[in-house]
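thought: fold this chain, then report.
action: predict
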Amino acid sequence: MNPVEWYRNKRIVITGGLGFIGSTLAHRLVGYGARVRVVDAALAGSGANPLNIRGIESAIELWRADLREHDVIETMLVDQDVLFNLAAQAGHLASMEDPETDLTINATCQLRIVEACHRLNPTLKIVHTATRQMYGRTHELPIDEDHAINPIDYNGVSKRAGELYLLVGHRAHGLRVTSLRLTNTYGPRMHCRDARQHFLGDWVRRVLTDQPILVFGNGSQIRDFNYVDDVVAALLSAAAEPSTDGRVYNLGSDEPISLTDLAHTLTAVYGRGRIEYTRFPPDRERIDIGDYHGDFTRIHAALAWAPTTSLRTGLASTLAFVNQQREGYL
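observation:
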């Protein structure tokens, strides 16, 4: 599949398109000649950043709209070819503090998308972004898509419910749905002002502002990371391939790493930095998943997808971008 040819003049909606994944996807699609509509409520603390679409403002249609508002979903989907469904409440602590908002955004809005597509645009291709958080605390690594679903925070519950609504839409109505279960995504344009969206963004901020990286516990927890360009490649391939309809896929990495080693790698790439170990805050410890490493065998078999950006290369690009754009990202 030649993505430039496939996406040229396609009508694309990206919800959550002011976030760092959605905006990176928008930049790529504009380059491919797609007709891109970015929809984002730009809620406080969401990671939405108008600077993320700098350079493509005139090439996209920007809707400042909340999917919870009446008729937004119905209106945005009419006559569109692909929906990249990235809008979500992603904060794990936020889900515990305000579970009803978390449920409405991550689950109820997905049901409304299913119903709107069924009535108004049943041929629309939907690529949904789910989360590894729905697996909860895991027992065997790496984790494949058949692993038990046992979330330990409300965010994992709501994201799984939203995914299920979409998959039932496929089974009951024939909607064209693919769900990608993301692991830790990082890269240029990521939210770095605090740790509510992503601890690695907070680490990047701390390194660049001469503050110590705070590692909770002993730092032995295993995680995997995908550079944003690799995630975008998976999204684009999933949308264009009909055989992915009704399927779920893990993303993942062949470079699982402990948090201690990640902290040392980050400081080594930047050339300086300090690391401090500290006790887990109780609210975070209660919902920490422990070790996680995703098995991406299924998506590799279906789409020949595999991450191509090494962790060191990706961290270097991230640090360079955020350092250059400090005013907008720190």
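thought: worth noting. The chain has one domain: 3-188+226-254+292-308.
final: tokens above.
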